[in-house]
Design goal:
Blueprint: H1 2-14, E1 24-28, E2 31-35, E3 41-44, E4 52-55, H2 59-64, H3 96-100, H4 102-105, H5 123-129, E5 133-136, H6 141-151, E6 155-157, H7 168-180, H8 184-205, E7 216-219, E8 231-232, H9 237-242, E9 257-258, H10 261-269, E10 273-276
Parallel strand pairs: 4-5, 5-6, 7-10
Antiparallel strand pairs: 1-2, 2-3, 8-9
């Protein structure tokens, strides 16, 4: 079981998803109409953008897998360690994209506060960055359209999903960004790699018989900045892929969420194995 956990853990750190998605339609010269993750038709000129702004929790992370740091025109305060009054809730949490791009991010102007508590785009700050395209993780059609009209540039909405890194929405978002930034091959290669790694794990565990009473509790999952022993999930994709029995099965919905302390104590009484996501 330890080898299985190590295998899926390695993929969890780098995996994003595994289902390709074609998001383009009409062409008019160098312009194409793409369908973003909110179903919006957005006219873009693939590969032409050199001043990018990413807004909303997770948008910059998503962009970092496809785009280039030197094309960023601004950054949210949460990812700029030199910004005054910035949110610090994730400073002790490993953010590979922020570590890799720190020298660039710390020199960029602010395009907003950022972080899970900031749930509205700051149009004035975005305008001051003078972007030619915006990548947004604010999943709201009306707000995306309004921001695009205000700033006068395309707004591309990306999306994660309840299955976390293995959610098909992530692969679709990567393919979308690959199209927009002229990096289709990079997006396809990444999605193909993730699919092959997922398949390799499933192949390794397909014949493993796990006793029904052997169950694991996942905790410490991030949700709107909250991370503690009560933050868990049922139908947890990494567990499903690795053939691990999740002790949490009776919540009202999938996705990361908090449970009551009473339920947590009841689960603990069942003497389950405890796996904290901070170690994953």
């Amino acid at each position: 079981m330890k080898k299985i956990l190590l295998a899926f853990t390695a993929v969890l750190l780098i995996a994003l998803s595994c289902i390709p998605f074609v998001a383009c339609s009409e062409k008019d010269g160098g312009t194409e109409v793409v369908i973003d993750m909110m179903g919006r038709e957005v006219a873009v000129t693939p590969g032409s953008y050199s001043k990018v702004v990413c807004i909303g929790a997770g948008a910059l992370r998503m962009y970092s897998y496809i785009g280039d740091a030197d094309k960023l025109a601004g950054v949210e305060d949460i990812d700029n360690e030199t910004a005054e009054g910035r949110p610090v809730m994730f400073d002790n949490v490993a953010r590979p994209y922020q570590i890799a791009w720190k020298e660039t991010l710390d020199t960029l102007p602010s395009c907003g506060k950022g972080g899970p508590q900031a749930q509205a785009a700051e149009a004035e700050k975005i305008l001051a960055c003078n972007p030619d395209i915006i990548v947004s993780e604010y999943e709201d059609v009306d707000k995306a359209n309004a921001l695009s009209e205000t700033v006068g540039v395309p707004v591309i909405v990306v999306k994660y999903g309840s299955a976390g890194v293995f959610d098909e929405n992530v692969a679709k978002s990567l393919t979308l960004l690959g199209k927009v930034f002229g990096k289709d091959e990079k997006a396809a290669t990444l999605n193909s790699f993730i699919a092959s790694e997922k398949a390799a794990i499933e192949e390794k565990v397909k014949d493993v018989v796990v006793a029904e009473q052997k169950k694991v509790y996942i905790c410490g999952l991030g949700n709107w900045g909250t991370t503690d022993e009560l933050q868990t999930a049922q139908n947890y994709a990494p567990f499903n892929i690795s053939n691990i029995n999740n002790i949490v099965t009776d919540l009202s919905k999938d996705g990361i969420q908090g449970i009551e302390i009473e339920k947590f104590l009841d689960l603990a009484d069942r003497k389950s194995t405890r796996l904290n996501s901070s170690h994953v």
